[in-house]
Design brief:
Transposase TnpC homeodomain domain-containing protein, 2 strands, single chain, 152 residues, mainly alpha, two-stranded antiparallel sheet, 2 helices
């Protein structure tokens, strides 16, 4: 009987060990299936990360900026603007103003359009032979609209 009791105790210990291993496997598998995922993060963590990385886009307050550049290939025309001679005096005392020697300069791009009327004379010639075409001449210039008066 003692031998049988010893065998049962050994078998009981082996079964307890096996049960412990199986419980560990179940715990690991349930943690894998039902536990926290690595792809998901805490919402509070996400908010903190967004606040750290979010910067306002665009120009910052107080920043001058560069503006548009004037193309170098444009033709240049210099203009000097002066006040009229009758306004070169102080309105209160009447003494003349004195020129400072400094100027205020600025650049701007102006657009000029020039329209003109083309008066076109086309010479016509009459025939001196007996061919069927009675008058010879060049056709008129091309137009934007066939019946219109404006050409490109």
């Amino acid at each position: 009987m003692r031998a049988e009791t010893g065998e049962l105790k050994e078998e009981n210990a082996a079964l307890k060990k096996q049960l412990k291993e199986e419980k560990a496997k179940v715990a690991m598998l349930s943690k894998m299936v039902f536990g926290k995922k690595t792809e998901k993060q805490n919402k509070s963590k996400k908010r903190k990360d967004k606040k750290k990385n979010t910067k306002k886009r665009g120009a910052k307050p107080g920043h001058k900026g560069s503006g548009r550049k004037i193309p170098e290939d444009l033709s240049k025309r210099e203009e000097t603007v002066d006040i009229p001679d009758d306004e070169k005096f102080c309105p209160k005392c009447g003494l003349p103003y004195e020129e400072l020697g400094s100027e205020e300069c600025s650049n701007e791009v102006g657009v000029e359009k020039s329209y003109y009327v083309r008066f076109i004379r086309r010479k016509k010639y009459r025939k001196t032979c007996s061919c069927p075409k009675p008058i010879a001449g060049r056709p008129g210039p091309g137009k934007t609209y066939p019946e219109g008066q404006i050409s490109p």
